[in-house]
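During the first year of the project, the team set up a workflow for recording each protein of interest as an amino acid sequence followed immediately by a discrete structure-token representation. This format lets reviewers and collaborators read both layers of information side by side without switching files. As required by the reporting guidelines, we include two representative entries from the current panel. The first entry is reproduced here exactly as it appears in our internal archive.
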Amino acid sequence: MTTPFEGDVYKTGSKQILVTRDPIYVHPAVTKQGNYIGRQPHDYLPLAICVTVLNPLLGPIAILFAFKSSKSFTDGDIIYATKWSNYAFLTSMLVIVTSCLAYVALAFALSGPELRGGHSY
């Protein structure tokens, strides 16, 4: 276990402030205010980008939610980061299902009568 040097600890009226670059004390799960907020929830940004390629009209909504999740975690709000992460995943799944159904319906609408059950005499 590493102990801080006396020069790295500043004492104020009620708190001690530790200023160091030691990897034991500096951790990405600690915000700028020094509060432990835990692990970052998955933001689903790669999934949102793939969804945007699949459907360029609705896909950017998933990207927006993914960015809001990352921004909320950076601000130290783990609850909203999780909420926006869930919204990004749900939006991505809905866009995938909706796009697949729309593309299948469009394919049947543009196909000839032999695929729609029509007769070709």
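The second entry, processed by the same pipeline in the following quarter, appears below.
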Amino acid sequence: MVDITKMMGVCALCHKHGDLQNSHLIPAWSYRRICEVDASNPKAPIHISGGTAALTNRQTTKHLLCARCEKLFSKSEDHLARLTKPDNDQIMLFKHVTRLDTPRKVLALLNRVEDGDHLAYFAASVVWRASVMTSSCRLGPYESTFRQYLLGEAQFPREASISVALLEKSPTVDARGWVSEPSSSRVNIGWLHGFLLAGLAFRCFVGKTIPMEWQKVSLAGANLKKYVSILKPEECADFLAAAELAGTAEPRGKFAKTYPSSLE
């Protein structure tokens, strides 16, 4: 019997030849988390693509990484799995931040340096994976510098900045049950690569004209203190964009039998 979980080839990260694993773009645990949070739909996540919505366990995978590089990524993935574990109506990470007395009360200090390091590495790894696995996220000439950072061979690119927002409890939606794959959009300072995952909203700006202030507060920067923002889902532009797509998607398959109209 052929083992479909592996194949021989060149690892996209270390560029060495070996057995390639069937690597996930988004960690498999995040799909299980969706079902854990949404008790009304325990069998499969709702997948939205191309204007339609369906119940499916399909996940984006590709024979991409060797076992060593897969393990390298798994350290931060496992750390994120613990940080995003449901805790009452929020995620565990809220226990490890200190909300600062800023005008809108949206800024928080990470109490543990390692959390910031893992958040930054995880975000960079997902954005990089998306750039080599899909057509919806492109790093262009920065793909190689991201790859070197992920291998530990170089510092995080000075032309990039990573930020994370913790999505608070909302009376209308539970953001912990939302996952989106990275996508890229052109902005006035370069490119924005963003995705949602289990109560977190990740943003990675890349471009030569990124303000120095953004680099200083980047989770991947050299600053000793690491910060995150705290937002309601309805205050997060990335979440609102995802919700708009969900609201206009037409149900199909088994999902259509339960919800014959749109998700809105």
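For the second entry, the following points were noted during internal review. The chain has a mean pLDDT of 83. Residues 73-258 form one domain. Both points are flagged for discussion at the upcoming steering committee meeting.
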